[in-house]
């Protein structure tokens, strides 16, 4: 199970050489059209070049390039040429307007590029979460996917990862599972993360002096493990902690669901046994209750026979009755 999440968006990452090529092309176009168009149209070309170069530049680099471009435009094309001086007020106003517009356009284009890259990265992260959730649900026991999950988390953060899963209540006698290598201090931090159920490390507001993230592997009710991500103080600014925590929570929910299914299966197995054990001693009293009325039945039968003999004796002649009594 490997879900790859790229850190930058292909084709949209800042490339200084492309921006430099755009500026050189724009400068060549201005030189070639110097005798064909006026100064105002040349300024429009400068704004266009600044906007195009911003597509492949960082925001601050685009703004700086726009400022330098306006200064070079002043020296090369605004009379008197070859100096920073400006003879006419309308030329000074044109330079100021060009500087502001080109700077704003460059910043807006860079911002738009950054937002597009961020949106595509979020889409990739959402797809990675979906694929991870599907594979965890397909597994009978998510513990067997811990090694592959560690590789996925390493790819998402670009840092080394260690996972710790303590022995769970559903698996009596199961020792804790450590995926990766960790020293005594890191083990203590992982256990603390499991107990508290919160993340700590660089940028979390808790134990910021630590060189790594400690992320809880959370279910709905408790933490079922912890992940150690050795990001370092520089990589911690990339903004990947939220995505890493979401991946850990996916594993935690899968582990909790597997524990619940095992507990339910064990409860279903124990219930019939308890019913059978409870039903065995209850049979004897039932049999005794059925056999108890037997003496009353025999006594009633004897009374009926005596009454029948008495009735027969009353109907027989006196001589016959005396003969029967003598035989008895």
Give a verbal description of the structure.
By secondary structure, the chain is of the alpha+beta class. The chain folds into two domains: 16-129, no CATH class; 141-264, GAF domain (Beta-Lactamase), CATH 3.30.450.40. The protein contains eleven helices and four strands; from the N terminus they run αααααββαββααααα. The protein has helices at 16-32, 39-54, 59-77, 89-138, 146-157, 184-196, 232-235, 241-279, 283-291, 294-315, 318-327, and strands spanning 160-165, 177-179, 213-218, 223-230. Strand 3 and strand 4 (223-230) form a beta hairpin. Helix 5 packs antiparallel against helix 8 (241-279). The chain starts with 15 loop residues before the first helix and ends with a helix.
What attributes does this structure have?
single chain; 328 residues; alpha+beta; Beta-Lactamase; 4-stranded antiparallel beta sheet; 64% helix; elongated
Describe the secondary structure blueprint for this structure.
Layout: H1 16-32, H2 39-54, H3 59-77, H4 89-138, H5 146-157, E1 160-165, E2 177-179, H6 184-196, E3 213-218, E4 223-230, H7 232-235, H8 241-279, H9 283-291, H10 294-315, H11 318-327
Antiparallel strand pairs: 1-2, 1-4, 3-4
Helix pairs in contact: 1-2, 2-3, 2-4, 3-4, 4-8, 5-8
């Amino acid at each position: 199970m490997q879900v790859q999440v790229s850190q930058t968006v292909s084709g949209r990452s800042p490339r200084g050489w492309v921006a430099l090529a755009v500026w050189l092309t724009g400068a060549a176009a201005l030189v070639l059209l110097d005798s064909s168009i006026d100064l105002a149209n040349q300024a429009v070309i400068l704004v266009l070049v600044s906007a195009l170069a911003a597509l492949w530049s960082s925001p601050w680099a685009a703004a700086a390039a726009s400022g330098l471009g306006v200064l070079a435009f002043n020296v090369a094309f605004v009379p008197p040429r070859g100096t920073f001086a400006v003879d006419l007020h309308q030329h000074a106003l044109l330079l100021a307007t060009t500087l502001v517009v080109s700077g704003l356009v460059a910043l807006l284009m860079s911002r738009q590029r950054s937002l597009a890259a961020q949106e595509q990265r979020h889409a990739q992260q959402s797809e990675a979460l979906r694929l991870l959730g599907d594979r965890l649900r397909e597994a009978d026991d998510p513990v067997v996917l811990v090694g592959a999950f560690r590789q996925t988390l390493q790819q998402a953060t670009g840092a080394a990862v260690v996972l710790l899963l303590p022995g769970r209540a559903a698996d009596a006698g199961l020792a804790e599972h450590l995926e990766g290598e960790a020293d005594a201090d890191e083990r203590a931090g992982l256990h603390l993360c499991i107990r508290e159920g919160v993340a700590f490390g660089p940028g979390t507001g808790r134990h910021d002096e630590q060189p790594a993230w400690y992320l809880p592997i959370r279910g709905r009710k408790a933490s079922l493990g912890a992940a150690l991500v050795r990001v370092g103080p520089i990589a911690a600014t990339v903004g990947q902690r939220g995505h890493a925590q979401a991946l850990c929570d996916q594993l935690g929910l899968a582990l909790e669901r597997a524990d619940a299914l095992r507990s339910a299966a064990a409860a279903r197995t124990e219930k019939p046994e308890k019913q059978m054990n409870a039903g065995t001693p209850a049979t004897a009293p039932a049999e005794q209750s059925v056999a108890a009325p037997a003496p009353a039945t025999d006594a009633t039968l004897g009374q009926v026979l005596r009454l029948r003999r008495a009735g027969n004796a009353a109907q027989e002649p006196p001589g016959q009755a005396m003969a029967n009594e003598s035989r008895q």
